[in-house]
């Protein structure tokens, strides 16, 4: 069955430090992969998506993610974190049925 | 371009009462989704509409939850009667068409059932 795992429930980084949020998926073929961000009291905003082609995907707000088929991973990265990046981050995938399967999310805290 | 609108933003009710949430998707978006997001979890799809028809309602607790999208535009999600475990954020999202993976989310309605 399709599933998404975000191993880190909570991460704290210092402002200006680099960030990597992990996401692993389980699917028989290459899924469609997404990262969404949810700020407190806000809806979900799409950061980036991977459908095919270049495995390094650029998104909004300076985020990028790399699809690694061999590791069934789609980790989110940012070279320098800003205080405004504190939020909940969700990884999701969709297969041929086009239904989004969500991870449980990673809560990011940023220390000044 | 206006985003997905939802109301109310917050609602507190007692168990066994009924409640309704409203969603107005982005203009021109044929597909509308209702999700339930319990604290600490990812969103769970309750129902998906394509225009005014239901595409997927497999995870909708039909004994107490109902949803409609009569004119293929805005939608209402109702819970009757509410239970304590229904406390969650109810998110509405829309997309251009069923095959377009990019979903645009509203701010959500936070429901507390006491």
Keywords:
heterodimer, A: 112 residues, mainly beta, four-stranded antiparallel sheet, B: mainly beta, seven-stranded mixed sheet
Summarize the structure.
The complex is a heterodimer of chains A (112) and B (114). Chain A is mainly beta. Helices cover 0% and strands 53% of the residues of chain A.
Describe the structure.
- The complex is a heterodimer of chains A (112) and B (114).
- Chain A is built from no helices and 12 strands.
- In chain A, the strands form 3 sheets. In chain A, strands 2, 5, 6, 10, 11 and 12 form a 6-stranded mixed sheet that branches.
- The termini of chain A are far apart.
- Chain B is mainly beta.
- In chain B, a hairpin with a 2-residue loop joins β5 and β6.
- The mean pLDDT of chain B is 92.
- Classes of the chains: A mainly beta (112), B mainly beta (114).
- The interface between A and B is medium-sized, with 22 and 20 residues.
Order of helices and strands of chain A: EEEEEEEEEEEE
Share of residues in strands of chain B: over 45%
Could you tell me the strand content of chain A as a percent range?
over 45%
Rg value of chain B: 13 Å
What is the total tally of β strands of chain A? 12
Query: Could you say which structural class the secondary elements and strand pairing of chain A correspond to?
Result: mainly beta
Report the order of strands and helices of chain B: EEEEEEEEEEE
SSE map:
The complex is a heterodimer of chains A (112) and B (114).
Chain A: E1 3-5, E2 10-14, E3 19-21, E4 24-26, E5 32-38, E6 44-50, E7 56-58, E8 64-68, E9 73-78, E10 87-94, E11 100-102, E12 106-111
Parallel strand pairs in A: 2-12
Antiparallel strand pairs in A: 1-4, 3-9, 5-6, 5-10, 7-8, 8-9, 10-11, 10-12
Chain B: E1 5-7, E2 10-13, E3 19-24, E4 31-37, E5 44-50, E6 53-56, E7 65-68, E8 75-79, E9 88-95, E10 104-105, E11 109-113
Parallel strand pairs in B: 2-11
Antiparallel strand pairs in B: 1-3, 3-8, 4-5, 4-9, 5-6, 7-8, 9-10, 9-11
């Amino acid at each position: 069955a399709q599933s998404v795992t975000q191993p880190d429930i909570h991460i704290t980084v210092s402002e200006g430090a680099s960030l990597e949020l992990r996401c692993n998926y389980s699917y028989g073929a290459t899924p469609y992969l997404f990262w969404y961000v949810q700020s407190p009291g806000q809806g979900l905003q799409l950061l980036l998506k991977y459908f095919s082609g270049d495995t390094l995907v650029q998104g909004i707000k300076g985020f990028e993610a790399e699809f690694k088929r061999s590791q069934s991973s789609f980790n989110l990265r940012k070279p320098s974190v800003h205080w405004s990046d504190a939020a909940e981050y969700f990884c999701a995938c969709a297969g041929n049925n086009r239904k989004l399967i969500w991870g449980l999310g990673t809560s990011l805290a940023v220390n000044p | 371009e206006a985003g997905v609108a939802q109301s109310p933003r917050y609602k507190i009710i007692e168990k066994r009462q009924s409640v309704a949430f409203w969603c107005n998707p982005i203009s021109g978006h044929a597909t509308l989704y209702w999700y339930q997001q319990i604290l600490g979890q990812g969103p769970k799809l309750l129902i998906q509409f394509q225009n005014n028809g239901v595409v997927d309602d497999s995870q909708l607790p039909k004994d107490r939850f109902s949803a409609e999208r009569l004119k293929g535009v805005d939608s209402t999600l109702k819970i009757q009667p509410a239970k304590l475990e229904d406390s969650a954020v109810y998110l509405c999202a829309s997309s251009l068409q069923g095959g377009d993976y990019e979903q645009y989310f509203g701010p959500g309605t936070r429901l507390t059932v006491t």
